[in-house]
Amino acid sequence: MKSLRDEWTYLVHSKYPIIAIIFPLIAVLGYSLLLPSSQINDANVVVVDQDNTAYSRELIQKIDASPYMNVAEIVSFTDNPEQYFYHEKYLAVISLPHGLEDNHHRSLSSRVGLILDNTNVQSITSIRTAMQEISVSENMELSVPAMLKTGMNAEQAQGALNGIALEVRSLFNPTNDYQNTTILAFTCMFSFMILNINSLPIVARLRVSKRLAAELQNPFNILLRILPYTLFSTAGLIFSLGMLKMFGGGRFEANPILFMIPVVLYVFGTVCFNVLVAWGAAHPGIAIGRMVMVLMPAFVLSGAVLSRSLFPPLAIQIGDFSPFVWMYKFLRTMGLRGAPFQEMLPELGSLLLYVGVLSMLVIARALWEKQKLAKQTAGAAPEKGSPHHVVPASSTGGGLSMQGAPSAPMHEPIKG
Question: Do 233 and 317 contact (CB within 8 A), yes or no?
Fold first, then answer.
């Protein structure tokens, strides 16, 4: 308990409790202001109108009426459409071919060009969708009257054109709200980063302050020092998720009390993992430098930004060694998908087992370090400067000499 009190005192007098709670809130506020909309509206596009007819101008008006596109410039010809992307002013170039109106009246096909800047796929998804909707609508307006001339009624004509109707239903985040994706990911990442910065130097701090040997007299002392980090990091993350739901409109369907269970295991396991990674660091600065070994692989492989389906099976298995990856599984499944706690019991049992293994590894590492320090102490004891023992010895001259000192002759008493 002395170790727990010592670590508690250290944390309370440091800035970590404030940072653990306030910093994720700052991330929520900052990214909410930076990403006020969940989709790109009125993206600037260039239309190359090579037909320059009444129908082409009508089609341009429909493109401009889309909430996803804004026709910022209309030109009659270009031989280098790539130039419009150079200064990042436009996201797409739409080319209307020559003869568009004539083909429209003759019920012939026309190929409209859509040139997209694919350096950022997310920015052009809505443009592609809007153009597909416009093309389908135009085809319906052209095809239905033509098919009515064959003797079909309007319902039969639409059925012939749309024999298979696809109905799309988007679950859990139907509006692609950034609060449930990007902002949520970076909120968790900042909380994870602050936890790493403060927990990686635990052993190095004890080593520099000459308290590691005393601390290892009880190997469980290291685990006791993890408890304050668990309290503050769990409180900070849960509080941030609550603020994101209440004021940012984020989705969170899990029971907060039950969700604390995997979060507590995640924080405790993360600090255990950090202790093992940074144990051999001679200085806290060296320990913090090892954060790149923990932070980046966990964040990338968690699926917070990139889908885990993109990764090969080996990468997914490696990612499962990070408690942060497990926490994000619970956040997606319980928080966003609304799965009941009972559904996550197998994953919870696996996480509990993994954290238990990490705890035992910390204890084993502490016992090994304790034995190592004991051997070093025992080996250093005879080498400490102590004077040679004085041993009486007889000299060849019949006198007594002290070992290591010049001999002193024995004088016979003077006879009277």
Answer: no
- Contact by Cβ (8 Å): 113, 94: yes
Strands 407-408 and 400-402: antiparallel
Read off the pLDDT of residues 313-352 as tens digits, 9 standing for 90 and up. 888 899 999 999 999 999 999 999 889 999 999 999 999 9
Residues with Cβ within 8 Å of 353's Cβ and at least 6 positions away in sequence, in order, are: none
Residue 283's alpha-carbon distances to 96, 178, 203, 204, in angstroms, are 66, 40, 9, 5
Residue 31 to residue 20: CA distance in whole angstroms: 17
| Neighbouring C-beta atoms of residue 317, cutoff 10 Å | 11
Burial 196-228 (b: 16+ CB within 10 A, else e): bbbbbbbbbbbbeeeebeebbeebebbbbbbbb
How far is the C-alpha of 42 from the C-alpha of 410, rounded, in Å? 115
Report which secondary-structure segment, H or E, holds 208: helix 202-208
Q: Which two tokens stand for residue 9?
A: 């005192």
* CB of 290 closer than 8 Å to CB of 279: no
For 230-255, how does the pLDDT look when each residue is reduced to its tens digit (9 = 90+)? 999 999 999 999 988 888 788 899 99
**Whole-prediction pTM value?**
0.71
**Cβ within 8 Å of residue 303, ≥6 positions away:** 325, 328, 332
Euclidean distance between CA atoms 272 and 352, whole angstroms: 13
For residue 318, give Cα distances in angstroms to 242, 285, 321, 328, 361: 31, 27, 6, 15, 18
Please choose, from the candidates 212, 342, 333, 365, the residue with its C-alpha nearest in 3D space to the C-alpha of residue 282.
212
Phi-psi category of 19—alpha, beta or left, where left has phi over 0 and alpha has psi -120 to 50? alpha
CA distance 140 to 146: 10
How large a percentage of the chain has pLDDT more than 70? 81
Query: In this structure, which amino acid lies at residue 162?
Result: N
Query: Which two tokens mark 241?
Result: 């998720």
